[in-house]
Amino acid sequence: MIKVKAPLRQDSRGRVLDIIRATEPTSRIELVRETSLTPASITHLVRDLLVQGLVREVGQAESTGGKPRTLLRLNHDSMTAIGVQLGAASVGIVAANLAGDIVGRQVLRGVADLDPQVIVAFLADAVAELIDNLGLDRSTIAGIGVAMPGPLDISGGYLRNVSYLENLSGFALADELETATGLPIVIDNDATAAAVGEYWLGTTDKHAAYATVYLATGIGSGLVVNGMPYRGSSSNAGELGHVSVDFRGPECTCGNRGCLELVAAPPVLVERARQAPPSAGLGEISRDNVEDAMSQLGILASRGNEAALTIIRDGAELLACGIVTLVNLFDVDMVVLAGPGFTSCAAIYLEAAQKALDSRTLARGVHTVSVVPSASPRDAAALGAATLALQDKLERKPAATEKK
Ligand SMILES: [Zn+2]
């Protein structure tokens, strides 16, 4: 049965692990102070984590008069998870350790035109290859997180209505992938996974209210407040690409009219480039892969090709309109630009979005909103998905119990 991952970890074990990760080396006394759990609870939780090998003791802190404090660190490589960003035009796979560090990655072709069973075999092979190449012990792998474009309509364990991946409609992806890999699977929206990934990449503060705008084949956004992703009632919150910017505009596949995605998504910008006259100098734009084409267009724009610059700037201005709406609705402190669509032209998008936010948001006199590039635009969603798999494992069943 597919699990769309619910909350960021909130159980005590998870909180303790988060604090150790953020402050290591730390001690039980500091954990009591940071969590407001009782000393007895912390002693018990830390004992469990030591038994499971997730945490280790690393000597003692110099005494400041009281009893010496035993220092604790995460055992970073005691657990690894695999994250998959499953896209129409590309697939990114990462392996991340317990500290949220990426320890291996690969980028593969997209799966828009593949049969679902072929996709499962393709992913299972790629994951197995990554595990082998990294020399990872399979018994330490928590599971696989899969980040996909929305909308995710999951009914009875089957995917439905996934944008740009209609070939997966009616397919039980998680069950099939679990069978093929022998690893537990969690699924989430790619923009939400990217927002979680940005925290782990160090782009954002856990306590901030921030949004990630995710540009791949489509346009999405993920929201995090106080370390918690906001998913709405069906994990379909933040569908920025389907905010209407023209109510008389053309009908979108979603049923709305004049959606942002119809005028600003990479396939639309790339098509404009492909239609440009030869004199525009855009002849080298890929005819096959929209992400490659977007990347080439971005490179040409940053080299000063006027036609490319006009197309990317138009896309950036339109997206900036959407970002102003996002900020007006959710009053975030920061917007992170993530996703493969930004890999070669983030600077143009950043400038347009920052200018729009500085001059057009309702609360601009109250606080500023900064726009920053992702620390790793291509990896953010896959990393976020990997960390969701880690959390799922940690919350589901303590490893020590499983071994019995
Ligand atoms: Zn739409």
UniProtKB/TrEMBL annotation:
Matching InterPro entries, A to Z? ATPase_NBD, ROK, ROK_cs, WH-like_DNA-bd_sf, WH_DNA-bd_sf
User: What is one Pfam family matched by this protein?
Assistant: ROK
**Family note:** Belongs to the ROK (NagC/XylR) family.
The protein's name is Sugar kinase of the NBD/HSP70 family, may contain an N-terminal HTH domain
